[in-house]
Amino acid sequence: MNPVVEHFFDPVTFTFSYVVFDEETLDAVIVDPVLDYDSASGEISYQSANKLLEFVKKKQLTVEWILETHAHADHITAAQYLREKLQAKVAIGQGIVKAQKHFAVVFNLTNDFATDGRQFDHRFTDHEIFKLGSIDCKVIATPGHTDDSMTYLIGDAAFIGDTMFHPQVGTARCDFPGGDARTLYQSIQKILSLPADTRLFLCHDYPTIDRLPIYQVSIEQQRQKNIHVSQQATERDFIAFRQERDGMLAAPKLIYPSIQINIAAGKLPSAESNQCQYIKIPLTVKKD
Fold first, then answer.
1. What is the per-residue pLDDT across 258-277, written as a single tens digit (0 to 9) for each?
2. CA distance 259 to 288
3. What end-to-end distance do the CA atoms of the chain give, in Å?
4. Which of 29, 56, 88, 249 is the most buried (most CB within 10 A)?
5. Is a pLDDT exceeding 80 seen at residue 232?
6. Average model confidence (pLDDT) for the chain?
7. What is the DSSP letter of 163?
8. What ranges in the chain are assigned the alpha helix state H?
9. By the 8 A CB rule, do 33 and 78 touch?
10. Which residues contact 32 (CB under 8 A, 6 or more apart)?
11. Extended strands (E) in 111-149
């Protein structure tokens, strides 16, 4: 039994979100939902998340899980908004604890911020099994981009986060805390060793003039055509390439709001005495 997968693309952050469901039981999960955020005004809104809710309602689905492939640095999750609307559980990989401990220092979070992952309803471990209706599901730890990166294998559908993108785009960066090029290469090999008919669902795509955004690719496409990890690329080649490439990359535009909210499972900062909520932005002052 394999799931039905409906994709939703956010052109602002180039992110795919998914509603995945068992057509017989109408049980569902949501993967990597996006909260709309305007960095200039600080305004948060829910158009993207509401599209997911509309689809769930139309199909009369029961959503049990909201699954995060990792704590994203390029968009804010709508997990808490959807959790409240759907009474679903929010889950991520156990590696979130390492990410929380690191960023609690970076952002000088108060003692009120727990760094044991308790903000999430569940923290999956490698090889953990769960069910989506009658469909068997397996969690595969695929770190390298981040400590908490996970792949969710739901029937024949693998939601691979940022491990790999469209073959013309390549693979994830490895210069975030907990990132490691060798580890990412090994995680990618785990994905490429899945059954050949496994459908790979991407977290992002970056369309060009000649190509619309693509959300699904095959294992064979990645093996043959991925510009970073095709069959011709050795582990040593990949590590050297990623280390050189990552050293030239700028930080994601939304990294500060995204990380602060996403390591808290999408919970927004508490209002301060003036009833406003704030995101911290650490400053780096260059010396003359």
1. 999 999 999 999 899 999 99
2. 30
3. 63
4. 29
5. no
6. 95
7. S
8. 47-59, 79-86, 96-106, 181-192, 219-225, 235-246, 255-262
9. yes
10. 15, 16, 17, 18, 67, 68, 69, 72, 77, 159, 161, 203
11. 122-124, 129-132, 135-141
199-201 β-sheet, strand order: 129-132, 135-141, 150-154, 157-159, 199-201, 216-218
pLDDT the model gives residue 288: 73
CATH number of 4-262: 3.60.15.10
Complete edge-to-edge strand list for the sheet that includes strand 34-38: 43-45, 34-38, 76-77
CA 195 – CA 209 distance, rounded (Å) = 33
* Consecutive H or E run containing 43: strand 43-45
The amino acid at residue 34 is V
* HEC readout, 232-283: CCCHHHHHHHHHHHHCCCCCCCCHHHHHHHHCCCCCCCCCCCCCCCCCCCCC
Tokens of 116: 């044991």
Domain boundaries, the chain: 4-262
Strands 89-93 and 27-31: unpaired
Q: Which tokens belong to 189?
A: 């090999």
Residue with tokens 């699904």: 216
Listed in sequence order, the residues at least 6 apart from 258 whose beta carbon sits closer than 8 Å to its beta carbon are 72, 73, 74, 75, 76, 252
* Alpha carbons 54 and 40: distance in angstroms, whole number: 28
User: 10 Å Cβ neighbour count for 103?
Assistant: 19
